[in-house]
Amino acid sequence: MAQYASILFSMILVNNFVLVKFLGICPFLGVSKRFTSAVGMGGAVTLVMVLAIAVTWPIQQLLVAWDLEYLQTIAFILVIATLVQLLEMVIKRFLPVLHKALGVFLPLITTNCAVLGVATLTVDEGYTYPEALVAGLGAGLGFLLAMVIFSGVRRRVEEAEPPEAFRGMPITLISAAITAMGLMGFSGVVDHLFGA
Amino acid sequence: MSEQVRAVPAEPSYRQIFSKGLLDENPALRQMLGLCPTLAVTTAVTNGLGMGFATTFVLVCSEVVVSLLRKHIPSSVRIPAFITIIASFVTLVMMLVKAYLPALDEALGIYLPLIVVNCIVLGRAEQFASKHTPVQAAADGLGMGVGFTISLVLMSAIRELLGAGTLLGIQVLPSFIEPMLIMVTPAGGFAVLGVLIAISVWPEQRRRREEGKEALETSETLCAACPLNCGVNDPNRDDCARGEYAERLMDAFLSAYDPNRYDSTRERDA
Predict the structure, then answer these.
(1) Does residue A54 or residue B202 have the better pLDDT?
(2) What is the pTM of this model?
(3) Which of A12, A32, B4, B53 is the most buried if burial means most Cβ atoms within 10 Å?
């Protein structure tokens, strides 16, 4: 149990996908302007990440068995793109409430580097199937956490008046730097708690 | 400058195609494309150079192939087709780097396969290569690639110099100056990129103000930051989703989702 908790919390806090690993910067900067859209995007990414791992992990085993590891990137990106399309259709048909909440965000995730990143990362780390699924959940929750925190930070930043050259993207990046500093305080915490 | 190039359909020279990627349409600093690798691998100059060259290779090769096939790919399946072409070249680069530069492979880690989802590559394939000749596409890919490499090297030089006191692994700063470790941490990456973008738009903003023109603001709804990430990256085209359209879509979605709690004007005033 301890190893799952360790993976989960280190993915959320220590190796936060957005603020430490720089994956999924595009939606992080683009959709974090409002709290509601930040939560929607975070939820959708979490869902897709767990499902993507559930599908790509067995595929990786097949690729290894058939000596086709070099096809990993091509296989993963195509499987993830197809998965997102299928997921949208299934949710629309069977879970209309969830589709209302997450539907807009699903197609946006296809080319999101965080999803392909988590699939590749679990392969590189050599996780077992349940460990990989927990890592996917942790990465998604970490993304959600970063989005929610940053949407709050940005609301303050929008009312500030920085020098002209810093308006827009530069000041957003600098506030992201300060947010990232906050997460640096967690490094080491998880190792101490779970003795991993 | 870039507006003019778009508005005038006359054939631009290869030099113009090549040079617009260097500053005017620099992928990382102006178009805010490919920010993930720009932030992630730029802790040392060697990593920045390696990532830049790998991306340039993928850009040039995939643009040429997309351009060669541009009359044969049906437009309804063009995005998956482009992604497959790009992924093939990324796989090629990964194998080459693994075989000949294992240290670089170790340093770049998962960011090497992630060139597939780098918006620069898909964006240029869709926006440029799919409607120009292979030679023009090669010039564009090379220009964008070199522009991207320059910004990566600039970023990594600043971070390596301030964060470790070295350049390309050679001690540059005198040893009595304590290196600022924060520069090689993720927080330093965000801050350095923010300052670099501000510096790159500053001269143009000043020039515009002196000419009495409207100020140039670095938009936050550029392609990479666009929630719809369609890879078109041209607000003048109907199928590009960014800007107004994205905003309106989000507003419509949010008010349908929860009409009582959400009101965009109220939220902004609050």
Answers:
(1) A54
(2) 0.79
(3) A32
Q: Under a CB-based contact definition with an 8 Å cutoff, are residues A100 and A91 in contact? A: no
Q: Which of A99, A173, A174 to mutate to test the interface with B (most CBs of B within 10 A)?
A: A173
Give the whole-angstrom CA distance, residue B95 versus residue A13.
33
Residue of A nearest to B33 (CA): A26
Six-digit token string for A102? 């997450």
User: Does residue B72 lie in a domain region?
Assistant: yes
Q: Compute the nearest-CA separation of B91 from chain A (Å).
A: 7
Q: Which residue of B has its CA nearest to A31?
A: B227
Q: Are residues B154 and B229 in the same domain?
A: no
All residues at 6 or more sequence positions from B195 whose CB lies less than 8 Å from its CB, including other chains: A170, A174
Burial tier of A192 (Cβ tally within 10 Å: 0-12, 13-18, 19+): exposed
- Same domain? B147 vs B255: no
Q: How far apart are CA A33 and CA A143, in angstroms?
A: 15
* CA distance, residue A75 to nearest chain B CA (Å): 9
Mean pLDDT of A31-49: 82
ipTM for the predicted complex: 0.83
Q: Decide if A78 and B113 are in contact by the 8 Å CB cutoff.
A: no
A64-111 pLDDT, tens per residue?
999 888 888 888 888 888 888 788 788 888 877 777 766 666 766 766
Residue B195 lies in domain: 2-208
Token pair recorded at residue B219: 């938009």
CA–CA dist B122, B84 (Å, integer): 11
In chain A, the residue whose alpha carbon lies closest to the alpha carbon of B36 is A22
Write the CB contacts of B127 (distance below 8 Å, at least 6 apart in sequence). B231, B232, B233, B234
Contact B36, A113 (CB under 8 A): yes
Would you state the structure tokens that stand for residue A93, as one six-digit string? 């048909």
Across the interface, of A41, A112, A174, the residue whose CB is closest to B191 is A174
The C-alpha angle with vertex A113 and arms to A11 and B72, in degrees rounded to 5, equals 160
Contacts of B92 (CB under 8 A, 6+ apart): B61
Q: Are residues B262 and B234 in the same domain?
A: yes
pLDDT of B62: 93
User: And the tokens for B157?
Assistant: 């030089």
> Which residues does chain B have within 8 Å of residue A71's beta carbon, measured at their own beta carbons?
91
